[in-house]
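Box 3.1 A note on notation
Throughout this textbook, protein chains are presented in two layers. The first layer is the amino acid sequence; the second is a token string describing backbone geometry. Keep the layers aligned when reading.
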Amino acid sequence: MTTSRPFGRALCAMVTPFTPDGKLDHSGARALARRLVDSGCDGLVLNGTSGESPTTTDAEKTALVETVCAEVGDRAHIVAGVGSADTRHTLALARAAERAGAHGLLVVAPYYSRPPQADVEAHFLRIADTARVPLMLYDIPARTGTRIEPATLVRLAAHPRVVAVKDCAYDLMGSSKVIARTSLAYYSGCEELNLPLYAVGGAGFVSTVANVAPGALRSVLDAYDSGARGRTDSVRLHQRVLPLTEAMMAAGLPGTVTAKALLGRLGLPGGPVREPLRPAGRETADGLLRLYGALVGVPTETAAEATTAVAAP
């Protein structure tokens, strides 16, 4: 690990593959994880919201971490989501994830109860004091109802195991101030902000869209890092992926639903979503496939065949 990029640059918020009857799909998880790492992902974030953590059991969460670590844990950073609204439960999930082999923990702000900042800080410190692996804090107030305020993040950065932030706060000013004052690695959790956040000192991204287009997202960062001429290319590449990003993340359906719909059309592991989520309709899946085909530069009718060929072991 490095101080600036403790989990690499390009991380996928991996969906949790299920079998047609709704059980955890271990072979699918191995295949998807392998494809993502082969396609340029430095790390995989498991058991986040994109991984349907609200509807998977603790045992399933642990089993998924074990499966993916066994498959690609020697080639990628495996970060396990362990957040909950209950500090005791979060601690139990953290211990289980560590035993399963996780290299880091994603810890979201306690949700729904909307604790004050002092309690949010105490919650994270309890996890950090107990953990044996580094923490990525998850700031997504639109879902949790609670912001991790910049001042709180600055204080938490003093803890040696608090090393990163998944940033979904939509506050570039606040994020920039924390980046300037701390060594926290900031990972964009909103694809449309991947390049803007990277340009002001971010470390990379944690992306749901990366389930289907990891190379396209990584190419933006690669171009930016290549020098002054590459900065122009990075903007062009960033713009190329925006139509698919908008369709997957801002068209009224959760990213998990759209990601699994497109994975299914591409012949890749994903499977059904669990209730209360419902699968995307055929029209939505067709539209996603068209946008994916445009992004990767192949006709819609051959996008699935091309992707399946690339994904084959």
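The CA atoms of residues 5 and 203 lie 6 Å apart. The first strand starts at residue 10 and ends at 13.
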